[in-house]
């Protein structure tokens, strides 16, 4: 149960949130035509005769899009409908050449499922009502000409999955956690790249408020929100706005709104239409979609290990701390990089700690993501191996890693070229210890009088005198003997 409440003049209010996430299906062609879906093309360069609604053009369903939708449904333990149907949603808009959008209102391909999300208040299961397949509309550009709007139909006909949650979320944090988890699953499955900046994943945010335990209030829908941070901002702003309206004696109108990210506010766009306003009817040019048991079984067999299962294996089998396992499995590219690190021979726990601290810190400084890491998993495994076998210390490993980032050389080469090998020569270490103790006679007396915390000081001074090249374990053993 979320503790999030909106403080009103007349008391506390609970926010109720549902999300409709539009995820562009990974495919090299559109839902009903062979036109390309590649991002960044010149305006209107990827428009087939079908997309442009030329007379006599009939849609042909892209089977890959069906497969990806089914795989997504299976990944969230949803019901897969063996029989589904396409409907026409009729409305006029300049970026919709057909005058209708082909969607699946009455018989979607995927039924109910659920997602387990983690928030600061604990775990929560959020229901998914349905996933249906539909085609995207084009895009209107209002800033290209002083008096006219331009239309780009490249996105027209692009295949989308609309993933509709139940109104189960009760805070901005829960909404953010849901979108992050859904995005992670889509990227693991490979059914959507989850790139919100490029518009391949965006959300319509439904928000209403109520007194705790009362009936749901009237909701508003804020369209096309394209980042987790903005989704959370919409929830926060809309909840406060609605409470203020109700407490001032007004009524919430069911409407469609837009979010202004610069001002952090939503504004009214149009009154919210109901299904009958769109005059839905079955698409006469498309047969119902019938899935065989063999097809569904093939889709299931093609699924990879998903984030929750991978996290459980990392913690229970490999002994990786839960926090590190969360970080690594939350992104598919990071998980793959880590698996490659293990395959190259790195020890799991040490590898996880190094990845989430040293590598992430370096990538953050360099402004790179893990896919563009200058150090490969094989090179990282070599570095960690040199620490594990005592060739270099942990502190020397940091120096070697920095050199690897600068030069691209392997760890063993850098250690050899720069003479950074750790020494376990007891004679040489004993000689330095003797010098350190002789130079700090007063601290030796204090240590022997019971101030045991000084032991770390002696270790540090010895390491400093040997330029970090002495084996810390050997220093500890020899110091204990010298101070006994």
UniProtKB/TrEMBL annotation:
SMART domains in alphabetical order:
GatB_Yqey
> In terms of domain of life, where is this protein from?
Bacteria
Q: Which reaction does it catalyse?
A: L-aspartyl-tRNA(Asn) + L-glutamine + ATP + H2O = L-asparaginyl-tRNA(Asn) + L-glutamate + ADP + phosphate + 2 H(+); L-glutamyl-tRNA(Gln) + L-glutamine + ATP + H2O = L-glutaminyl-tRNA(Gln) + L-glutamate + ADP + phosphate + H(+)
Query: What Pfam family does this protein match (any one)?
Result: GatB_Yqey
| Keywords on record | ATP-binding, Ligase, Nucleotide-binding, Protein biosynthesis, Transferase
Q: Where is the Asn/Gln amidotransferase domain?
A: 336-483
Keyword match Lyase: no
Q: Name one GO biological process term.
A: glutaminyl-tRNAGln biosynthesis via transamidation
Q: What is the E.C. number? A: 6.3.5.-
What Gene Ontology molecular function terms does this protein carry?
A: asparaginyl-tRNA synthase (glutamine-hydrolyzing) activity; ATP binding; glutaminyl-tRNA synthase (glutamine-hydrolyzing) activity; transferase activity
Q: Does the keyword Protein biosynthesis apply?
A: yes
Quaternary data: Heterotrimer of A, B and C subunits.
Its annotated function is as follows: Allows the formation of correctly charged Asn-tRNA(Asn) or Gln-tRNA(Gln) through the transamidation of misacylated Asp-tRNA(Asn) or Glu-tRNA(Gln) in organisms which lack either or both of asparaginyl-tRNA or glutaminyl-tRNA synthetases. The reaction takes place in the presence of glutamine and ATP through an activated phospho-Asp-tRNA(Asn) or phospho-Glu-tRNA(Gln).
The entry assigns this protein to a family as follows: Belongs to the GatB/GatE family. GatB subfamily.
Q: Tell me the protein's name.
A: Aspartyl/glutamyl-tRNA(Asn/Gln) amidotransferase subunit B
Please report the organism this UniProt entry assigns to the protein: Sphingomonas paeninsulae
**Organismal lineage:** Bacteria, Pseudomonadati, Pseudomonadota, Alphaproteobacteria, Sphingomonadales
